[in-house]
Structures are given as structure tokens and as C-alpha cells.
């Protein structure tokens, strides 16, 4: 396993200017870089009252924003999509500094944010259009379905994709005519502030989107309690708390939560491609990726070959800090992540698991590095057998048949993402057998994630609602049915109630045949 230690080559964006965009006058929050512990800058946190004030200001700004034609709002998204690509290196530098991730992993944030914005820039005006619907009485009832914005949307995001998650959830909420209050994780506020800066540069009115930073147990609930819809991304445990609060307030919410994603290698797979794909995707973003695989089920027929090729690929992964494009695995995001990963590995080993690769921290690379780790013989009692590790750790499990592979892949409370390696001709049919919101055939996660016109989200305990696709925009709207009636739906003239009843029964009989 080689290492790269190229130092950052450029100064970071002006962090003091970004910090000034945060709404809040509370205590300063110091942000440090996890890859070397250097201080990056400070951001003022919002008091609880300031969160409520930000929502009031957002409500005012929302009226003017929603009154603009959908195409005008979409033009802001298109400009943002272009700006993100133009300012790619600046974004990569900041995201890398704030998260410690490898540059190639940070690139996913740039591409995803830009594609999501462009997709919705193209699709939103059509999706939001008033639609004629079949009326109660054909020709006599003119029924239209309209889409109205919810009002102010709270977007709560984690630290693992701190630029694109605020961007890709905020843009569709804005295009639907809402104002947005973003609450990023405390470890990564600057990336969210850069998202805000670029949205404003693209033409977004000042108060239509704001960022509030603050302690998770205070600022998070304050946002949830003040907005009209919550878009939450984070752990399943926090998602439950947010869901309970939204339930009490009867406001809508959408949640993208945790996963324990399977990768299946069947007997007819292209084994070298599967081994390379698995190594690339299990350790992408140092395993801190909600859709990254943590369990690999290998058909007995290809087990030996796959395992040997996979371990070979893992041994060649380039791990380390710095801005080199060649580095594949960066730092974990915090000491807490390292402690969690270590405890999962130690627990599995104590219960009988074997370490085939890695298995330990890499302090010589930086305070929060952990080696890409492959385990075998992980017993059912090990914590990592079922719980999300969210780090560079994957467990291998042999399976004797395809039936067993699908049964074990589905034997989980989660259902976020899956990867299946098989003959392409069988991919769609077999993929549909996996209980997950996204299934990637002959790819780890990028194929489904990058299909921005199709929904993305979790089954079971991995979430509710979808981002991307039409659903990822329409969830931020209230639908309204306006039905204009030409003649009353009642007996007319001297018609008796019974005659009316017979007439409408006959009418419904005819309608049922055609509509
Ligand atoms: P987390 O749930 O601890 O925190 C996520 C966000 O919620 C942070 O901004 C945090 O400050 C905020 N928060 C914490 N408590 C809150 C509360 N009571 N009310 C409102 N907000 C609150 O998640 P994390 O551990 O930081 O992130 C990693 C998790 O996120 C993993 O489980 C990962 O799978 C998941 N994730 C899911 C997706 C997806 O698209 N499904 C994407 C990225 C990450």
C-alpha cells in the first residue's frame, strides 16, 4: 500500500468572507482540518432566537422569489451549475481541507452538485407546470392541478459530503419556489457557506437561502421546529428524532439515512472488473459514504479468484493526505470516526474475524487515517456484521448459491444502495430482487447516484422520500386541485332526486369504461 503526501498547493478561499455569510452572532466555532489538525477558521454560531429570525426573514424573501417565473428561478440553477465547474479547484481545496478526503472523492461533490443543479434547471419548469386533470364530469368540470411551494425548507446535512448535500437538496427546494435554511454539520460549515456564496453569485436573492451553524442538539431542533418542511440527511438514529418532531408538528419531511450496503459477486461476473470496482467503491471517501458497500457476498464458484484479485487491488490503493489526484483514500473526518472504526474492527476480531488487509490506524499519515481493511469470517455476533461502520472496512462472506446471496443481502434493516456484479443481460431482472432504493449493476454506486433524473433514497430504515428525479423536486411542493364547474352537480330543473341518481349512475357506468 503506497502513500502520497503532496501538500496543498494553493491558498484556500477567503474563509473570513465565507464566515461572514453565516447568520448568527453567537459564540465562535473553530473549524480544524482532520487530515493534519490545523485550524482553518471560525464561524459565529446562531442563537436559537436567531434561527427563528432567519426563518422570518426567509419567509419575507420567499414571497418575491416564488413570484418569479419558474424559468427565471431555473436560470439561477443553470448559472450555479456552471459556476461550480468553473470554480472546481477552489471547491476541491476547501472540501479537502475541511473533511480530509482524497481529491478524487471531493470531485464527486463538484460533479454531483453541478449535475443536480443542471438537471433541475432543465426539468423544474415542466414539472411545476399547471396540469389539466380529468374532471368530475367530463366537459362540465375543468380541473387543474397546481404546485405551490411549501414555504421555508430546512436542509440539515452531515459532514461527509458537505458541499454537494447542501447544494443538491437546496437547489430543487429553491426551484420549487421555497426559501431555504441550511444547517450543516458543525465540522464542515465552510463547505456549506461556499455553496451559499456560489448560489448568491448565481443570482439568488440574499435571504432566499441562509446558513445557520450551531450545536447539533440545539440548532438542529430549532430549525426543525421553525420550518415548513425538513430535508434531513444523516444517521438513522437522528432521523428518527427529526421524524418524531416533524410528526408532532405535522410538517412534511424527507430523510436520507444510513445503510449497510451489500455488494454481490455472482458466478457469471467479470471477476477482475468486480475486484477493481469493489476496491474502488468500498474505500471511496475512506468508506464514509452512505451508499458505499460494507458487505461483499461472493459466489463459491468465483470466491478464490475474486478474493485474491480484490486483496491485490486493495494493497495497491494509494492512501494519504494532500491534493494529488492519484491518492485514492484520504483521512477520516474526525477522531470519533477513527474510534468507531477501530472499535468495530477490534470487536469483530475478538469474536473470531480474520484480518485479510489493514486493520489498524495509520498515525504516520495524519491523526485520523485508518488503513483500508478487509475482514473474513465475521461472525453474526460482531457489531459490524449488521451495524453501519461508515469507514474503510469491508467484510467478505462466501455464498453457495444465488438464492443465498440475495437472501443474505436482503437480511438487513437497511435498504439504501446495492452493487451487483453479473452478466449485463441478467442485471435488471436480478437487480430488482434486492431490497434497496438504488441498485448498481457492474458498478459500485456511481451509476445510480449519477442518474439524476431517477429517484435516489432508502427503503426500510434507510430513509423516507427521494432526492433526484421528479420526486426530489415535487416533495417540496403542496399540490392543489382547482375544479371549475360549468353546471351544478345536482338535479336540475324539475328532475327528481331519484332521476338524478339514475342519471349519474348511468354516467358513472359510461365513465368507468373509458377513464
Ligand atoms: P448525524 O445524524 O449525527 O448528523 C447529521 C446532521 O443532523 C448534522 O447536521 C447534525 O448536526 C444534525 N443533528 C444532530 N442531532 C440533531 C437533532 N436532534 N435534530 C436535528 N438535527 C440534528 O449524522 P452523521 O453521523 O454526522 O452523518 C453520517 C450518517 O449520515 C451516516 O449514517 C450516513 O449513512 C448518513 N448519510 C446518509 C446519506 C444518504 O443520502 N442516505 C448521505 C450522507 C450521509
TrEMBL record:
Residues spanning the membrane: none
SUPFAM superfamilies documented for this protein: ALDH-like
Record domain Aldehyde dehydrogenase: where: 28-482
Origin superkingdom: Bacteria
PROSITE patterns membership: ALDEHYDE_DEHYDR_GLU
Active site: 256
Signal peptide bounds: none
Keywords of this entry: Oxidoreductase
UniProt-listed PANTHER family: SUCCINATE-SEMIALDEHYDE DEHYDROGENASE, MITOCHONDRIAL
Family per similarity comment: Belongs to the aldehyde dehydrogenase family.
Name listed for the protein in its UniProt record: Succinic semialdehyde dehydrogenase
Native source species: Sinomonas flava
Phylogenetic lineage: Bacteria, Bacillati, Actinomycetota, Actinomycetes, Micrococcales
Amino acid at each position: 500500500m503506497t502513500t502520497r503526501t503532496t501538500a496543498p498547493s494553493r491558498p484556500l478561499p477567503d474563509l473570513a468572507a465565507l464566515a461572514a455569510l453565516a447568520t448568527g452572532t453567537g459564540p465562535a466555532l473553530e473549524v480544524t482540518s482532520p487530515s493534519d489538525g490545523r485550524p482553518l477558521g471560525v464561524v459565529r454560531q446562531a442563537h436559537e432566537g436567531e434561527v427563528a429570525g432567519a426563518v422570518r426573514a426567509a419567509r419575507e424573501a420567499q414571497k418575491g422569489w416564488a413570484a418569479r417565473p419558474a424559468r427565471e428561478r431555473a436560470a439561477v440553477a443553470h448559472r450555479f451549475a456552471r459556476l461550480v465547474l468553473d470554480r472546481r479547484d477552489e471547491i476541491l481545496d476547501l472540501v479537502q481541507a475541511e473533511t480530509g478526503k482524497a481529491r478524487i472523492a471531493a470531485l464527486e461533490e463538484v460533479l454531483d452538485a453541478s449535475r443536480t443543479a443542471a438537471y433541475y434547471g432543465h426539468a423544474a419548469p415542466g414539472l411545476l407546470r399547471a396540469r389539466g386533470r380529468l374532471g368530475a364530469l367530463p366537459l362540465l368540470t375543468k380541473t387543474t392541478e397546481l404546485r405551490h411551494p411549501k414555504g421555508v425548507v430546512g436542509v440539515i446535512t452531515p459532514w461527509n459530503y458537505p458541499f454537494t448535500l447542501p447544494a443538491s437538496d437546496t437547489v430543487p427546494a429553491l426551484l420549487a419556489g421555497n426559501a431555504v435554511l441550511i444547517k450543516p454539520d458543525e465540522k464542515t460549515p465552510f463547505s456549506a457557506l461556499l455553496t451559499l456564496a456560489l448560489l448568491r453569485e448565481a443570482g439568488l436573492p440574499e435571504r432566499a437561502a441562509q446558513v445557520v451553524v450551531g450545536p447539533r442538539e440545539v440548532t438542529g431542533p430549532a430549525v426543525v421546529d421553525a420550518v415548513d418542511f425538513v430535508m434531513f440527511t444523516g444517521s438513522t438514529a437522528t432521523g428518527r428524532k427529526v421524524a418524531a418532531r416533524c410528526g408532532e408538528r405535522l410538517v412534511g419531511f424527507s430523510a436520507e439515512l444510513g445503510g449497510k450496503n451489500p455488494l454481490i459477486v455472482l458466478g457469471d461476473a467479470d471477476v477482475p472488473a468486480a475486484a477493481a470496482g469493489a476496491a474502488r467503491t468500498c474505500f471511496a471517501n475512506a468508506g464514509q459514504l452512505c451508499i458505499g458497500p460494507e458487505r461483499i457476498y461472493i459466489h463459491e464458484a468465483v470466491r478464490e479468484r475474486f478474493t485474491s484479485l480484490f486483496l491485490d487491488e486493495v494493497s495497491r490503493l494509494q492512501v494519504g493526505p494532500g491534493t494529488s489526484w492519484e491518492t485514492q483514500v484520504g483521512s477520516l473526518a474526525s477522531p470519533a470516526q477513527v474510534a468507531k472504526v477501530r472499535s468495530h474492527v477490534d470487536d469483530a476480531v475478538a469474536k473470531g474475524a480474520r484480518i485479510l488487509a489493514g486493520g489498524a490506524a495509520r498515525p504516520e499519515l495524519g491523526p485520523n487515517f485508518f488503513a483500508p481493511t478487509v475482514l473474513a469470517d465475521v461472525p453474526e455476533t460482531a457489531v459490524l456484521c449488521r451495524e453501519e461502520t461508515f469507514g474503510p472496512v469491508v467484510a467478505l462472506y462466501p455464498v453457495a448459491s444465488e438464492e443465498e446471496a440475495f437472501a443474505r443481502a436482503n437480511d438487513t434493516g437497511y435498504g439504501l444502495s446495492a452493487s451487483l456484479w453479473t452478466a449485463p443481460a441478467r442485471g435488471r431482472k436480478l437487480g430488482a430482487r434486492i431490497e434497496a432504493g438504488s441498485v448498481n449493476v457492474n458498478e459500485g454506486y456511481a451509476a445510480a447516484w449519477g442518474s439524476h433524473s431517477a429517484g435516489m433514497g432508502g427503503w426500510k430504515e434507510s430513509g423516507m422520500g427521494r432526492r433526484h428525479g421528479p420526486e426530489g423536486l415535487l416533495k417540496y411542493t403542496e399540490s392543489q386541485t382547482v375544479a371549475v364547474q360549468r353546471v351544478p352537480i345536482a338535479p336540475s330543473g324539475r328532475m327528481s332526486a331519484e332521476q338524478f341518481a339514475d342519471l349519474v349512475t348511468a354516467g358513472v357506468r359510461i365513465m368507468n369504461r373509458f377513464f
